[in-house]
Specification:
By secondary structure, the protein is of the alpha+beta class. Among the domains are: 81 residues, membrane protein fhac (Ubiquitin-like (UB roll)), CATH 3.10.20.310; 141 residues, Rossmann fold (3-Layer(aba) Sandwich). Helices cover 28% and strands 25% of the residues. It has 6 helices and 17 strands. The strands form 3 sheets. Strands 11-12-9-8-7-10-13-14-15-16-17 form an 11-stranded mixed beta sheet, covered by helices on one side. It has a 3-stranded antiparallel beta sheet with strand order 1-3-2, with no helix packed on it. A 3-stranded mixed beta sheet has the order 4-6-5. The N and C termini lie far apart (174 Å).
Length: 329
């Protein structure tokens, strides 16, 4: 009995040694966190039919379970390698919005710098006394992308720089078209005062003298007209109403009765008139409402003076009801 008992004990010891070979010694003195190393362990190998012989190591899981894939090993029949599987990437709204921002930025940058949308020249219509060079110096569209042009601002710049423009239209179209249409004021008289000459159109708007033919009527004045009232003031851009339209009409009517090549005169005290080549001066005053009647009175006075062989030095029709003449000034 003692021999059988010793034989069993020896068999138990051999079996226990075999089991201990496959067990990994665990030291209770080493903290759990200290046992972690930076190297990744090799994937475990499972052998079919022999799972009961090896102890199962308890895995302390993470918050989310990991997925694994099993690959059969050709070198060892019946053995498999367990490898962690990669999760599929998910496309979120942040990624989509970021891609859209990048695409839009690239599109804007491309359009802004594309030669297709750069303006090289403008189509200018309606010029008479102004030149295209003068217009280009103000609008400044050459070499700029069409998206950066503001037609309202371009129109305002032209009206400010050129008072002789009564109408300005600016059209901007894709890909690179700029069309500027202008209407210039037509001067009907020139106002000269202290060696300075300005032009005036039929509406009484004044603007600087430009190259080209002078207006048919010239007025030599010693002061600015005092006929314009506050109700006559009108401004558009830098153009301003210099005299009311009624005075322009009166000046044109008087100039038609003045001797040829005779400039009209304007004085602060006597108003409009001229110096006749026959040796006298005539004035019609500042009240232009009855200019037609004053001209008829002037014709009647000339007939009377000629019939009586009178050579006047001054004829005044400033008041239609009290005309007179003088032999001396």
């Amino acid at each position: 009995m003692s021999q059988v008992s010793s034989s069993n004990n020896r068999s138990e010891e051999i079996r226990q040694r075999r089991v201990d070979r496959f067990r990994k010694p665990v030291s209770s003195k080493v903290p759990r966190r200290a046992r972690k190393t930076g190297t990744h362990p090799s994937p475990p190998i499972l052998i079919r039919g022999a799972q009961g012989r090896f102890p199962v190591k308890e895995q302390r899981g993470t918050n989310s379970p990991r997925r694994f894939s099993y690959i059969a090993l050709k070198s060892s029949p019946g053995a498999e390698a367990r490898l962690p599987s990669l999760s599929m990437a998910r496309i979120g709204w942040r990624l989509v919005s970021g891609l859209l921002v990048c695409v839009l930025f690239f599109a804007i940058y491309t359009l802004w710098n594309s030669p297709m949308y750069l303006v090289t020249a403008a189509q200018i219509e309606g010029l008479n006394r102004l030149t295209e060079h003068e217009i280009y110096s103000v609008i400044g569209v050459s070499g700029k992308p069409v998206f950066a042009l503001n037609p309202i601002q371009i129109r305002q710049n032209l009206l400010t720089a050129f008072p002789e423009l009564s109408k300005v239209s600016v059209t901007v179209a894709i890909p690179a078209t700029v069309r500027v249409s202008v209407v210039e004021r037509t001067p009907v008289l020139a106002w000269k005062q202290d060696s300075q000459v300005i032009w005036v159109d039929a509406e009484g708007m004044s603007f600087p003298k430009r190259l080209g033919s002078d207006p048919p009527v010239l007025i030599q004045a010693d002061s600015e007209p005092s006929i314009a009232t506050t109700s006559d003031v009108l401004k558009e851009g830098t153009a301003s109403r210099f005299i009311p339209p009624q005075l322009v009409t009166a000046i044109l009517a008087i100039s038609s009765r003045a001797p040829e090549n005779t400039p009209l005169m304007y004085t602060h005290n006597r108003g409009l008139g001229w110096k006749d080549s026959r040796g006298w001066e005539v004035y019609f005053g500042t009240n232009v409402a009855s200019i037609d009647m004053k001209l008829r009175v002037y014709d009647a006075m000339l007939k009377y003076l000629a019939d009586n062989q009178i050579q006047p030095a001054l004829i005044s029709v400033e008041s239609v009801h009290a005309p007179y003449y003088r032999m001396e000034r």
